[in-house]
Amino acid sequence: MFRYLPIRKVHARQVLDSRGNPTVEVEVTVGEGIVGINGYTAKAIVPSGASTGKFEAVELRDGVKDKYVGLGVEKAVNNVNTRLSEAILGENALNQEVIDRILIDTDGTENKSSAGANAMLGVSMAVARAAALALRIPLYQYIGGCHTCRLPVPMMNILNGGRHADNTVDLQEFMIMPVGADSFSKALQMCAEVYQFLKILLKENRLSTGVGDEGGFAPDIADSSEVLRFMVEAVEKAGYTAGKDIFFAIDAAASELYDEEKHIYYFPGESKMSGEKVQRDGQEMIAYYEELIEQFPIVSIEDGLHEDDWEGWTSMTEKLGKKIQLVGDDLFVTNKKRLNCGIKLKAANAILVKVNQIGTLTEALQAVELAHRNGYNAVISHRSGETEDPFIADLAVATGAGQIKAGAPCRSDRNAKYNQLLRIEEYLGEQAVYEAPSFGWGSEK
């Protein structure tokens, strides 16, 4: 249909994310002729994280204290409307890798601190969506190709802790994975039902049913074992079997618990609830996870150790990697260079992919490709500061990653992703494939 699809207009504005903080929205118009005539315009909104790794690409904020508590993104918006726009106007929108390379070169820094990763990503995502719109094909098909048909297994956060909630739960996310479902729509139903029964159980135990940043419940609970016991009961109340129909996953976000001076992981919530100071060193953290794995049907642990502890990650992978999936988020930050280090050191066996950690669609796709080429799983993920943009739903299908983190079945910023996956499944019809990925475990589990 098109060989050359020129970028005619690029415009950014400041909008709000799910936490009420400013973020960047970018509009891109492509097509021949005058802007607005025979043109195709698409938007993209950039998410933002709270629990962020120190190796992530820089999210440019204004720092003006009397405007949005210093979190404004007018600098990033201005960079889109000037430098980045000027650099790509007239370029072929069908050449995503070329567009992203121009954005990277225009920024000119290693960590995208000049233009801002949030500015660059908004442009990158909007260009891809505009190109798909012009070609009249779904975004997931434009990114992934005509044979794209795999729906991801939800890694659904149903209970929040850590930086995502003001409660005593130290580990950041407790998730359910409906690997026993035969379709995405059934998987979503199972998750939503477990979520509702967990709410009932928390109420019965006079615990808070308020929610954290990602829509998971955020009660004060003594420790991780008690959280997981509630989850097992909720699964059973919903009519399913834990360890058969539904498995569990944890995002420990261990870097948030780590004291870099003392080289120890401090658990403030457990300490408060028990009345005694609870802390663990690296090897004790691994032993702690081993205990949880023995007691509960856990198939995935994310960020189990500090983001700089390569030796510890290698040891943890050696001990646990044949039993469960070990996901590097802060460890890899969707960065090929850091993932390559992990592959060489045999640290982790999966990567979490957050497009705003790296700043362009091309670099995120390269990270997924590198992971798959080396036998690592990939999990496409949202951020705690999300938006109504369902881009990652299409990305999960496009990459065939087989797993998606998009939060609880609560709040429109999370459900936008799940609803988009329902649409994609319906569009694919009999071609849709839903199957669990390999978690690194077999007869040992």
Count all strands and give the number. Answer: 17
CATH class of the largest domain: Alpha Beta
CATH architecture of the largest domain: Alpha-Beta Barrel
Helix count equals 14
Principal-axis shape equals globular
Question: What is the domain tally?
Answer: 2
Strand arrangement across the biggest beta sheet: 5-16-15-14-13-12-8-7-6
Strand content: 15-25%
**Considering DSSP H and I runs of 4 or more, what fraction of the residues is helical?**
25-40%
Low-confidence stretches: 441-445
Fourth-level CATH superfamily of the largest domain: Enolase-like C-terminal domain
Q: Main β-sheet, in a few words?
A: 9 strands, mixed
CATH fold-level label of the largest domain: TIM Barrel
Structural class of the helix and strand makeup?
alpha/beta
What does this entry show, briefly?
By secondary structure, this protein is of the alpha/beta class. The protein contains 14 helices and 17 strands.
Core attributes:
445 residues; alpha/beta; TIM Barrel; 2 domains; 9-stranded mixed sheet; 3-stranded antiparallel sheet; 14 helices; disordered C terminus
Structure explained in plain terms:
The protein is α/β, with parallel strands linked by helices and 445 residues long. It folds into two domains: 7-136, 2-Layer Sandwich (Enolase-like, domain 1), CATH 3.30.390.10; 150-434, Alpha-Beta Barrel (TIM Barrel), CATH 3.20.20. 39% of the residues lie in helices and 17% in strands. It has helices at 74-88, 96-107, 117-135, 139-144, 184-204, 224-237, 268-274, 282-295, 310-320, 336-345, 355-358, 361-373, 391-399, 412-428; strands at 7-16, 22-30, 40-45, 150-151, 153-154, 156-160, 173-177, 247-251, 258-259, 264-266, 279-280, 298-302, 325-328, 350-353, 377-381, 403-405, 433-434. Strands 5-16-15-14-13-12-8-7-6 form a nine-stranded mixed sheet. The protein has a three-stranded antiparallel sheet with strand order 1-2-3. It has a three-stranded antiparallel sheet with strand order 9-10-11. The radius of gyration is 21 Å and the shape is globular. The protein starts with 6 loop residues before the first strand and ends in an 11-residue tail after the last strand. Residues 441-445 have low confidence and may be disordered.
